């Protein structure tokens, strides 16, 4: 299995004084996990072994022609996977530069060459920071307003945290992580 992620340990506060998570954390939540913060650029994909080297070479070529870009953080949203087997909390990210659009168009064309599905047509790029087993959409939506208030408190205190500069992509294929540096 493979997937592209922009890996960013972001908003994983060194101190909990930046936001009040007490109400959220005190609720017993079965089958939940916190996860490494990342922004997915593809669905989870299955690669044939003999595709890997050519795919990696193509990605190096694409990334070497893409300028680094900035993503802006917005609101917390609830996401559920297509199979409705996992529900996620994520912070929406909006791209501010055309280089991100070019990257996604190039990545989707490359996936099509391997007859793999592109990212969702109406993509909502986001930093996933929490997941639960099952379709827990309604349950988690009850926390969104409170989480958005906490997020906004953090972002107002440090405006630089509103933006993420992306200069590398990480791609995990099997148990190996490939790092692609964007044009410098």
Automatic annotation (TrEMBL):
It catalyses: a 3'-end uridylyl-uridine-RNA = a 3'-end 2',3'-cyclophospho-uridine-RNA + uridine. Keywords: Hydrolase, Lyase, Nuclease, Nucleus. One of its GO terms (molecular function) is lyase activity. It holds the Pfam family HVSL. One of its GO terms (biological process) is U6 snRNA 3'-end processing. The keyword Secreted does not apply. GO terms for cellular component: nucleus. PANTHER family: U6 SNRNA PHOSPHODIESTERASE 1. This is U6 snRNA phosphodiesterase 1. It comes from Cotesia typhae.
């Amino acid at each position: 299995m493979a997937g592209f992620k922009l890996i960013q340990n972001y908003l994983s506060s060194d101190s909990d004084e930046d936001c009040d998570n007490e109400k959220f954390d005190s609720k017993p939540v079965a089958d939940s996990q916190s996860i490494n913060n990342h922004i997915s650029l593809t669905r989870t994909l299955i690669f044939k072994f003999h595709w890997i080297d050519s795919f990696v070479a193509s990605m190096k070529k694409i990334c070497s022609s893409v300028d680094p870009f900035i993503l802006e953080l917005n609101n917390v949203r609830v996401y559920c996977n297509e199979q409705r087997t996992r529900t996620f909390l994520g912070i929406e990210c909006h791209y501010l530069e055309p280089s991100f659009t070019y990257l996604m168009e190039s990545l989707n064309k490359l996936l099509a060459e391997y007859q793999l599905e592109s990212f969702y047509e109406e993509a909502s790029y986001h930093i996933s920071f929490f997941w639960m087993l099952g379709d827990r959409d309604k349950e988690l939506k009850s926390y969104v307003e409170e989480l958005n208030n906490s997020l906004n408190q953090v972002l107002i205190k440090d405006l630089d945290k509103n933006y993420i500069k992306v200069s590398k992509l990480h791609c995990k294929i099997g148990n190996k992580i490939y790092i692609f540096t964007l044009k410098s």
